[in-house]
Each structure stands twice: as structure tokens, then as C-alpha cells.
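Fold it.
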Amino acid sequence: MLEDHLNKVSAAVESACERARHKPLADMVKEVVEAFVDAKMERTDISMALYQIATEVDGPALVKRSGQRCRKALEVLLGTAPDAGSHQEKFAVQMMVAAMVGATRSALEAGASPAMVRKVRDHLVLLCQSYMMAVATPRWPSQSNR
């Protein structure tokens, strides 16, 4: 069940990445974040239950593989952004995925009412858009060393 859920989330992110290719960076990020949140929050009861068992037996390996799929799809996608540098740092992609995972888990643990899910979705889009736009356009020389 955990593997099916993670595959569904990864597939949703990969599909969003396919649809968003060559769009402006902000649109790309919005599409990916919304797909991720929608997939995670479609069945909050299942998502919450799966967090409880994710540390068991093969859970960590499955979670790692799912995260790798999402990061790889995002890296390819961001390389097509017409308004961003030709190369996005892998670390920035890792941070974006971590923000999505952390925010959705926090909402699930807080009860994930429909209103909360809408707010998480909207705020996470803004957070990830702002972050990715900031790292896509270095403003000072030391930023490339981060």
C-alpha cells in the first residue's frame, strides 16, 4: 500500500512536469506543487496512516526512491524554463521537494481540514515559487557558493 501511494504521488509530479515543460518558472512550480499536494491530500486518512508505517521494513527505501523520481523529473523540467538560468542547482530542487513533503506532513498531522489543505496548497505554491525564482536569478556573487 505504501509503495502504491508513493508511486501515485511520484507519477502525479512526473505528469505535472511533463505538462509544464517550457512554461515560465512560476507556472512550472505552481503546476508541480499543486499536483503533489493534490496527490498527497486526496485521501488524508491513507496518507496519515502511511506516515505511521513508513519507517518499517522497506519504507525508507521506497520513500527514497519516490523522492529521487520527483527530484529527477523536477531537474529535467527546470532545465526547460525560459526565464531561469540554464542550470538549476540540484540542492534547490532537493529543498523544494523537502518543503513540499514537510508542509504536507505537517498539515496531515494537524488534521488536514479542507480549509487547511487549500491554505497549504496556496502557501506552498507561493513559498516554492519565491524560492525557485530567487535561486534562479543570483543577485550576488556568493550565492553560487551556497
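The mean pLDDT is 88.
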